[in-house]
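Why does residue order matter? Because the sequence determines the fold. Keep that principle in mind as you read this record.
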Amino acid sequence: MREEFSLGGAKLDRKIAWVRWDKVCRPKSDGGLGIRDLRAVNLTLLGKWRWKVLSGGQGIWRDIIFARYGFLYPSPHFGGRPSGFRGASLWWKDVSLLGTSVEVASDWFSDGVVKRVGDGNLSSFWFDPWVGGIPLKTRYQRLFQVSEQQLNLVDDMGNWLDGEWHWDFIWKRELSVWETELLQSLLSVVVNPSLLGATDSWSWRHDSSRTFSVKSAYLMLTAGVDRVSTRQNLLRRRVIRDPEDALCAFCGASMEAIDHLLVTCDSISLVWYSLFRWLGFRFVSPMSISSVLQGFLALGLGRKNKLGWLLIWHATVWAIWNSRNDVIFARETVSVEYLVGTVSVESLVDKVKLSSWK
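Structure:
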C-alpha cells in the first residue's frame, strides 16, 4: 500500500516504477528517500522480543507465554516450531520462526547470540552455543545422533568427584573408532567447565556491551564489505558531486575510503598505536580494517581470548565512526587523546578480563 501510494499508483491504474522500492527505502545519505522498510523494522522488533525471551530471567510473562504456547524447543535461541505451536498467536509464531524462512540467507539472530554457562542449570549441552559460539549439535553431528542425552542440560551431563568435574556420556550403542576420535575432540573442547557461581546467561556477540544493539551491529556487518556511507562511497553513488567534498573528515588530505577512515589516516593510525600501547602490545600499522581485525584475533588463542579482542576492535571502530560523524555534522574537533579515552572507557571491562588471559 505504501509503495503504491508513493509511486502514485492504484490497483486499477498502476504507474511505472522507475526506481526499485528497496532503493527508495535506503537512507537519504545513500541515495534513497529514507522511507523505512517495514519488513526490516518488523524483523528488528521481533529480534528484540526474542532477546527479551532469552535475557528476561524467570519473569512471569515468560512463564505465561510458555505455558500457553510452549517453549521454543529445544533451545530458545534457535528459530523453530515450539511445542503448542498450532494454537499460538501470529506474533508468537513470528518470534519463533524468526530467521528461518526460505528467503533469509541465514538465521542472523542465532548467529549473534552466545550462551555463557555459570552453573549449567539453564544451558542445553547440545543445542546452546556455549563453547566456541557454535552448538555442539552442529559441530559434532555424529555424536549427537548416537547420544541418549540429546535434551540434557550441561549440569546433567556429568558429576563432581573429589572436587573435579567428570563427564558421563550415555550412547545408544558402542562408538566406532571414528566416533571415539570425535569424542576425544569433544572432550578437549569442553574441558574444565566451572559450573559454579553465576546463573547461565545470554550475550550478543556483535556489541561490546554484550546486549543487542542495532546500530553497532549494522556498522560491524557492513564495514567489512565496504557498505558504510563513507564520502568515497557517497561520491560513487553521486550523492556527493564534488570530489573535494569527499576528502577525509579528520585529515582533509585523502579520499575518505573505508580503510583510510578507520586505519591509515594519520590521526586514526595514532589512535590504534596508542590503544595497542595501552594494552601492552607493539603495533605494526596495517593497510586495511580487516587486517587490524585479523591482528586482534591473533593476539590470543582460544574462543575467550578472541571474543575479548573482538569486543575491543568493535568498540574502537564504533568510537572512530561516531567521532567522524561529530566532525561532519556537529562541527566538533576530535583529538587523538579523546578517541583513545573513549575506547579505553568502553573497553575497560574487557581490559580487566584480558589481564587473566595472557
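Strands lie at 113-116, 158-161, 164-167, 201-204.
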